[in-house]
Prior knowledge:
Blueprint: H1 6-36, H2 42-56, H3 62-69, H4 79-98, H5 105-121, H6 128-160, H7 166-206, H8 218-234, H9 237-246, H10 252-272, H11 278-292, H12 300-328, H13 332-353, H14 373-380, H15 395-401
Helix pairs in contact: 1-2, 1-4, 1-7, 1-8, 1-9, 1-11, 2-7, 2-8, 3-7, 4-5, 4-12, 4-13, 5-12, 6-10, 6-11, 7-8, 7-10, 10-11, 12-13
Amino acid sequence: MEHITLLLAIVVVTALVFDFTNGFHDTANAMATTISTGALKPKTAVAMSAVLNLVGAFLSVEVAKTISSGLVKEEGIQPEVILAALVGAILWNLVTWLVGLPSSSSHALMGGLIGATIASIGFSGVNGGVVVTKVLIPAVAAPVVAGLAALLATRLTYKLGAKTDEKHTAKGYRVGQIASAGLVSLAHGTNDAQKTMGIITLALVASGALVPGSNPPMWVIVSAGCAIALGTYLGGWRIIRTMGKGLTDLRPQQGFAAQTSAATVILASSNLGFSLSTTHSCSGAVMGAGLGRKGGVVHWSTATRMFVAWGLTLPAAGLVAAGSEYVTQQGDWGVIAVVAFLVASCTAIWFISRRQVVDHTNVNDVDTEAPGVVTTAIAAVTPPPAAGSVAAVTDEDLKTTIPALAPTDPAAPPAPAAAV
């Protein structure tokens, strides 16, 4: 193992903490729809996802190379910069987890790295071309492509099964959903675990323990894979609730289409070295599947909050990282202060989360969102029933609908006329 200094050890441990938060933050990407449709029990689902995340971490290192040697210039990067980047990423992950929003752990990490690098050596330390082509463009394209693919797949699925009983075919789709969820978990390991491998490799290069352009050492791959698997097993139940029930109400056919579409997009991007957000891909696929079923709806108020979180991820993590980098530049006491701030913030967020616990026992307990103006207007305009579907109207129906007038006594005086 490479020579490890105290500062480098702190950076490595912090990176693994980020990897852990990435695991429980992104469990929803693979297993939210599987849990919401009842294809797997919650604890079984997260255990399966954890194992496949670990396996996926060993399949490729292309994304790790993008993080370690593509996003920022290795020359002039110090371990303190990476520590500051990780602080920004971890805190953003925990804040969005606390409010149950599926934001991108990948973009939090990259935003933190960019912000800390700019605070340390200026804009010249960031490879702008790589940021645009391998970060920003995939961030916009991934949810759109995955959403369209899931929408078309859902419509095709319902069209092919139009003459079959939905209840009878649901079991088969649940089996397919388990397989597709496993594929998403495997894809998540190949993409997200590598980001931590890349950041640790960058720290090793910055400290002189590795030469620039090196691949992640085996111990880095193993530790990153184990950290993300452990985080996945613990399950980010708050975000699973939002992804599984908060965005739309999915049926097994839709869950299968959504997960297959997302896995395809993620695996393709991993082979191309794109540092793709699995959250963006899976969220887009869930919304596409929700719109693909006739009568399906997307809860746009939840989706809007999620979009806002996506837009804030890069700048928010970058600003926290830049502030942390400024403090670490003050010397050893600055590094200690940043680490203490991170520990205190994580502890405070954890205690706040205990006020309203969400776990595997209540993850699917979601109040139905009140319909919006558009949904209410559409529901009010109900088309007339088809010919032949109207039942015969009987005298009893008319009597029920139009009550008979009360009998009058002929001897009774007439009722007084209403005053004009």
